[in-house]
Specification:
There is one protein chain. This protein has 182 residues and is an alpha/beta fold. 30% of the residues lie in helices and 18% in strands. The chain has helices at 24-31, 80-87, 107-121, 142-152, 169-181; strands at 14-17, 49-54, 60-65, 92-98, 130-135, 157-160. The protein has a six-stranded mixed sheet, with helices on both faces. The longest helix is centred in the middle third of the chain and has 15 residues, at 107-121. It is globular and about 60 Å long. The N and C termini lie far apart (45 Å).
Length: 182
């Protein structure tokens, strides 16, 4: 008799990571078939959602919408520690950042916080290819915030999108598909 612990890790090409209410679920619902619960409160997403995303060249990849992370997620705060393990199986990490500061947070501090939580969970996560999806660009003040953000983050591809209006997302999908192939 043996007791064996088995952990299931989702397998996805791209993992959407970000703080709560930055738009991960809206992005995956625009790019693929899943229709996750979307609402204006934290931790609407309680379980990861997987979707198949089609690039304009007809090729597809799997994207995972992971529940929002908070400070201390790597130590068990919020829902993060249950879902950070899924990021280990993703080929690409896509940071979703609220550039409109709808929650009253600073976009660069959000980006640093997520990277800190990823590193504290598993330093190898920071070695994965990454992009930044600058979301909520349709909201007043987002452009100015993005200019400041770009002054601090220069070494990573940034996409300006509005998931609410489905603007800029196909370009993200096409770029991600090319990244995955490389």
């Amino acid at each position: 008799y043996r007791k064996v612990k088995v952990e299931l890790k989702l397998l996805a090409d791209v993992g959407l990571v970000g703080l709560p209410s930055v738009g991960q679920s809206t992005i995956i619902s625009c790019l693929s078939a899943p229709r996750p619960k979307i609402a204006a409160y934290h931790f609407t997403t309680l379980n990861p959602n997987l979707g198949v995303v089609r690039a304009q060249n007809g090729k597809t990849f799997v994207m995972a919408d992971l529940p929002g992370l908070i400070e201390g997620a790597s130590l068990g705060q919020g829902l993060g520690d249950k879902f950070l393990k899924h990021i280990e199986r993703c080929k690409v990490v896509a940071h979703v950042i609220d550039m409109a500061c709808v929650e009253g947070r600073d976009p660069f501090e959000d980006y640093e916080l997520i990277n800190k939580e990823l590193a504290e969970f598993n330093k190898k996560l920071l070695d994965k290819p990454q992009i930044i999806i600058a979301n909520k660009m349709d909201v007043e003040g987002a452009s100015e915030n993005l200019k400041e953000f770009k002054k601090k983050v220069k070494d990573i591809k940034i996409f300006e999108v509005s998931a609410a209006t489905n603007t800029g997302l196909q370009e993200v999908a096409d770029y991600l598909q090319n990244m995955i192939e490389e």
